[in-house]
Specification:
Layout lengths: L1 E6 L2 E2 L11 E3 L2 E3 L4 E2 L11 E4 L11 E7 L2 E5 L2 E4 L1 E7 L4 H11 L18 E5 L2 H19 L6 H13 L3 H10 L2 H16 L3 H16 L7 H15 L3 E6 L2 E7 L1
Helix pairs in contact: 1-5, 1-6, 5-6, 6-7
C-alpha cells in the first residue's frame, strides 16, 4: 500500500504540489484527480513521490492519505518515484500521534513558575528571593552532591543519575523499536513540537516535555519498563505544579521556587 504525507493539502518534502484531495460521498470516498509529472523524472528532484512507510515522513500538522500510482519508476527503501499518482482516501492518525498532539496543545495551560504550594516530599526543594537565586541555591547543592558521589569526575554522578537515566527512558531496545514503529520523522517532529511549545515558558521545560512525549506516546505499546515512564512523569510533574526543575542526583529531584 502506498501513502502520501501532506501539510495543508501540499507536498511537504521537497515538493509544493497542491494535491487534488478525496471527497466524501455518503459513506464512500471519491478519489482525487490523477496528477502526472512531465519530462524526465529524477528521485527527490522531479516527479511524484509516495511511500510505503508514512511515519518516516511525518511532519507536525500533517495529513495522511492512501495513494494509488500507475507504476513505480524508481524505489529506494520506502520512497517511490512515479509519473502518475492520486489520493484515494484519508487515513486516520494512530492513537499515539493523536495523544502527542493533545499533550502538546495543552502545554500552554501549564502554570509555569506559579507554585501550587504543595511540593512533593520526595523533592529536594530550594527557595530564594528570586527564581534565579533559588536556582543558584539548587545548583550549588546539586553540584556538591554530584561531586561527593562522583565515580571519576564531579560530573559522573550527575550524568549517571540524571543524564544516563533519562536517556534510558528511551532504552536502546525501545528506541530501535520506536524507529520501526513510529518512524524517525514522526518521533522527531513530536519531540520538536513539545520542545517548541514548552520553550515559550522556559528553556529547561523543553527537554522534560519531549521526554514525556517519547515515553508516554511515541513508545506506547512497546516493551518499555514502567520505571522510565514514571521517571519522565515525575520530572514533568514538577513543571505542572509550577516549580522549576534543575536536575536529579541519584534519583532525587532538585527543585527550586521563588519564596
Amino acid at each position: 500500500m502506498y501513502y502520501k504525507i501532506l501539510v495543508d493539502g501540499k507536498s511537504c518534502h521537497g515538493e509544493d504540489l497542491k494535491w487534488s484531495l478525496p471527497k466524501k460521498d455518503g459513506e464512500k470516498w471519491i478519489p482525487g484527480k490523477w496528477h502526472e509529472a512531465k519530462g524526465d523524472l529524477e528521485t527527490c528532484n522531479r516527479g511524484l513521490h509516495v511511500t510505503t512507510s508514512p511515519f518516516n515522513w511525518y511532519k507536525w500538522g500533517c495529513e495522511l492519505y492512501e495513494a494509488e500510482i500507475d507504476s513505480a519508476i524508481y524505489q529506494k527503501d520506502d520512497k517511490i518515484l512515479c509519473r502518475k499518482a492520486r489520493l484515494i482516501e484519508p487515513v486516520a492518525h494512530p492513537k499515539w500521534w493523536l495523544d502527542a498532539i493533545e499533550f502538546v496543545a495543552h502545554i500552554k495551560d501549564v502554570p509555569f513558575f506559579k507554585p501550587d504550594g504543595k511540593p512533593m516530599e520526595s523533592w529536594k526543594l530550594f527557595t530564594g528571593d528570586s527564581w534565579a537565586a533559588a536556582r543558584d541555591a539548587a545548583w550549588d547543592t546539586a553540584w556538591a552532591a554530584a561531586r561527593a558521589a562522583a565515580w571519576d569526575t564531579a560530573w559522573a554522578a550527575a550524568r549517571a543519575a540524571a543524564w544516563d537515566t533519562a536517556r534510558a527512558a528511551a532504552g536502546a531496545a525501545a528506541r530501535a523499536a520506536a524507529w520501526d514503529t513510529a518512524g524517525a520523522a514522526a518521533r522527531d517532529t513530536a519531540w520538536a513540537a513539545a520542545r517548541a511549545a514548552a520553550r515559550a515558558a522556559a528553556w529547561d521545560t523543553a527537554w522534560d516535555a519531549s521526554l514525556y512525549v517519547q515515553t508516554h506516546f511515541i513508545c506506547a505499546g512497546l516493551p518499555l519498563d514502567e520505571k522510565h515512564k514514571n521517571y519522565a512523569a515525575a520530572r514533568w510533574q514538577v513543571w505542572t505544579k509550577g516549580y522549576g526543575l534543575l536536575s536529579d542526583v541519584n534519583g532525587v529531584l532538585y527543585v527550586y521556587a521563588k519564596s
